[in-house]
Design goal:
Layout: E1 8-9, E2 12-13, H1 17-26, H2 30-40, E3 41-42, E4 45-46, H3 48-53
Antiparallel strand pairs: 1-2, 3-4
Helix pairs in contact: 1-2
Length: 67
């Protein structure tokens, strides 16, 4: 498993990324995807947590974020 607390997203340490994915899996509202996407790929900047999280999209109950 990736050491998420050492990874970062746009808003700081990425220790909350698994909880964000769990929330999407149980309630896949567009706003939840927006929050996760903003953290991982903010204004076109891909952060270290984003790279390690991309393979986990299917675990969030969908193949990719909504467009």
């Amino acid at each position: 498993m990736t050491d998420r607390p050492k990874r970062r997203h746009a808003y700081g340490p990425a220790g909350d990324t698994p909880a964000l994915l769990d929330r999407i899996a149980t309630e896949p509202a567009p706003g939840h995807w927006t929050g996760l996407w903003s953290a991982l790929c903010h204004q076109g900047s891909v952060h270290s947590a984003g790279v390690s999280t991309m393979p986990l999209w299917p675990m969030a109950g969908t193949k990719s974020p909504p467009r």
